[in-house]
Amino acid sequence: MEPKSILLEMREYLMEMGAETLDRCMHCGLCAGICPWRLVPGQTGEQFNIRRMQRMGQLGIEGFEEENILFACSTCGMCQNNCPRGVKIIGNVRAMRASIVGGGMPPASLRPILGGTHANGNPWSGPREKRSQWQEGLDIPAFGPDTEYFLFVCCHSCYDPRGQKIARSIARLLQKGGVSFGTIGPEESCCGESIRKVGDEELFQKLAAANMELFAARGVKKIITTSPHCLWSFKNDYAELGAEWEVVHYTEILSRLFAEGKLALPGKVEAKVAYHDPCYLGRHSGVYETPRELLGRAPGVETRELARSHGQSLCCAGGGGRIWAEVPMGERFGELRITEAVDAGAQVLTTACPFCVNMLTDACTSMDKQDVLEIKELSEILAECL
Length: 386
Hints:
Blueprint: H1 8-16, H2 30-34, H3 43-47, H4 50-59, H5 67-70, H6 78-82, H7 89-101, H8 111-120, E1 149-152, H9 155-159, H10 161-176, E2 181-182, H11 193-197, H12 201-218, E3 222-225, H13 228-240, E4 246-249, H14 250-259, E5 271-275, H15 289-296, E6 301-304, H16 333-343, E7 348-351, H17 354-366, E8 374-377, H18 378-384
Helix pairs in contact: 1-7, 10-18, 14-15, 16-17
């Protein structure tokens, strides 16, 4: 094996980029042992080892920047939440990625995503004038001084046809519950959560500055997000920049409406349904029981709990920019999730995140399980009961 050079100045650079806890790691190996990449076969699963990557960063050893190593992490939080030393592993990964992307060397697979976001303000390269296309026919008002909540719809749900159905279901439920909300539309930009996680700090700062200026000009004080990724970013990334909004996920608002008697579900959905905890709603934001409580309110639903749930939930592999990654069949986390749901006797696998819906649907299709298992977003099940 060719010897590697130790470059301590690289370690110092990474720590300056945000990997402040890099030296805290004592290399117990727990992070690598519980990483979802250990559960699947294939080249990436063999090459990616989060503990080894941290060690390479500590020593400044070249090689951590290879795509199947540095950019394989889905930032699911399993390792970070269980680290006995409290190492901010995701922050370290982000800093290591920023050292590469900031130097103008992003992976080829991410260049169109970053370029499209620079040009159009969203990773799907959707035209700004079509950002509100999902709400046609719903009579959603523009956010104004007399509107309580600003509904921020994830870019995925603005431009992806499957995601648009999710946004429409959420809006219908909010309308039924009498919530005062509105949207802004074409002037909105991506929250930038995934952009920052893949390491383009400059682009994230550009997006965040544009959104903060826009929201301040419109008088936004309270935000409802459709995606857990937007929720996390507004509550954490934007808070670092001085934002002081009240930010909630749509499930939290719906739970409040039910508790206050403002929302009822007269219809019925006869199905055995299992709930998948999204990483960014569960491990990252601590919202576990609210979606389950909502699912339990849907008449006719018989719930099934998956083997890996709550804090031990299996990642769908869509976080950290991995939603844009090409992963061969047989090597996808989502395929394990589909098997779990079928084994639990579920007819429907539901979740509360558009990224998870995308990844789980792809896995279900690749396994040819569409006839025995349907993938639905939680809001879609609830909206069916209206």
